[in-house]
Structures
1.
Amino acid sequence: MNKVILMGRLTRDPDVRYSAGENALAIARYTLAVDRRFKRDGEATADFINCVVFGRSAEFAEKYFHQGIRIVVSGRIQTGSYTNRDGVKVYTTEVVVEDQEFAESKAASDAYVPQQRPRQNAAPAMPTPESASVDGFMNIPDGIDEELPFS
């Protein structure tokens, strides 16, 4: 069985490209910094795992994932190889993501990223606990249903 589950932070914004052809397919690539369980000389260490995701999940990553956010992914490890321009064979290992989800709240994620830079096509701000009505439910802003990634 080939199954992997990882939790880590994105080292950079996802790199999204689209396949050529009539039915273009989104392909997102990102790297997760996954903390190691044990520290070396008192210093935390991490592994940097390359991930690739396809289709609607790739579009979701493009829209909602950014550098520093903590996510959980599950998928399978895939190895491959190619010959580079210099004629040297290069071996690759990456996780083909089957499922991805947020591992912390937006507020915690934003607190982790020291500088929040403006993003293109940013989703509207989600309601905060301070916007809760008397009955304890949050007021949902108008038009938010158009921005949801699911139907």
Note: The beta strands are 4-10, 15-18, 26-35, 46-54, 70-83, 89-102.
2.
Amino acid sequence: MAIIALVGNKGGAGKTTLCVNLASGLNKLAPTVILDADPQRSSLQWRQLSDDSDGVSVQDAVDDLATTVFTASKVYTHLVIDCPPSVHAEQTAQALERADLALIPVQPSPLDLWATVHIEGKVDEARRVNPDLRAILVINQLEPRTTLSKLMREALAELSLPTARTAIRRRMAFRSAVLEGRTVLDLGSRGKPAADEIRALIKEVVKR
């Protein structure tokens, strides 16, 4: 079983979009559930848009994440926790103390880089309780032709956390799929490049 926390310290980093697509990819391999611990409940709203009865399940975990993790771990192989966009939130701390892996999406922007610095400290704190916690930065919404995107890996190398080789590009498929209550893995040929990135990220970072 793997417990994966999607962690951010700034809104707009694409955390929930990455969460639902990652969980959908994992669900095709083994039973997976999203635990929505973000008070905005964006993952739950996404699931309500969906008419796919076989799609990945989403449970509300805002008020009692610990109990929800305990209960869900008896049913599902993979738990993906959508955390609030703040490392200071109680739900984020609880998720980091229980997760096997923290994935931290980072956009190619100075604000995202500065926000990520604070996550390092919270990961270190969580490791006092959860010493086996792995934490990996994921470059998200990459635009390869921009100067900042080209410099992104160099900038992230200054941080203590490793960066995934797989980067997720800014693609219209991600946005349109979420608006439809679906994921890029459900879009067929028009979602293939995006779906390939999600599969590559799963293969790289999720131990099975």
Note: The chain has one domain: 2-203.
